[in-house]
């Protein structure tokens, strides 16, 4: 079976906690595609298919683009649950959008660490 024809169980058996490790405080929560990619990679591993991470990204991206709206909607809803749980656990984080810049990065999200005691910086 080629990896591009990989059958991914839907809905996958995943939990929000799997995407909230101890290091999550310093990272933004994953979006719908990144969760899909992780499930895709796990499926490859369960079928004993070993590919480079670059190949996994290319294949999962192609699979994501072909996925029906129902599948994408489920992953988007799950990603929102992960993001909501992340916000509850790490209240010191806030998501901001940068102001106008001269480069194309003005549309990206930036996560800012807000110290508990700003006077101690």
Automatic annotation (TrEMBL):
InterPro entries according to UniProt: HMG_box_dom, HMG_box_dom_sf
Keywords recorded for this protein, A-Z: DNA-binding, Nucleus
Q: Which SMART domains match?
A: HMG
Q: Recorded GO terms, molecular function? A: DNA binding
Answer yes or no on keyword DNA-binding.
yes
Highest taxon of the lineage = Eukaryota
Cite the Gene3D superfamilies for this sequence.
Answer: High mobility group box domain
Q: Which GO terms describe its cellular component?
A: nucleus
Q: Which residues form the HMG box domain?
A: 26-94
DNA-binding region(s), residue ranges: 26-94
- Keyword Translocase (UniProt): no
PROSITE patterns named among the record's database cross-references: HMG_BOX_2 (PS50118)
Output this protein's name: HMG box domain-containing protein
């Amino acid at each position: 079976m080629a990896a591009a024809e990989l059958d991914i169980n839907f809905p996958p058996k995943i939990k929000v906690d799997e995407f909230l490790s101890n290091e999550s405080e310093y990272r933004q929560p994953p979006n719908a595609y990144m969760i899909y990619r992780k499930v895709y990679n796990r499926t490859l591993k369960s079928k004993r298919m070993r590919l480079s991470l670059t190949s996994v990204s290319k294949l999962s991206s192609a699979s994501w683009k072909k996925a029906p709206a129902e599948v994408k909607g489920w992953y988007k809803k799950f990603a929102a649950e992960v993001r909501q749980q992340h916000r509850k656990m790490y209240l010191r984080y806030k998501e901001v959008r940068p102001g106008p810049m001269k480069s194309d990065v003005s549309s990206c999200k930036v996560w800012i660490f807000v110290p508990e005691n700003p006077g101690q910086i």
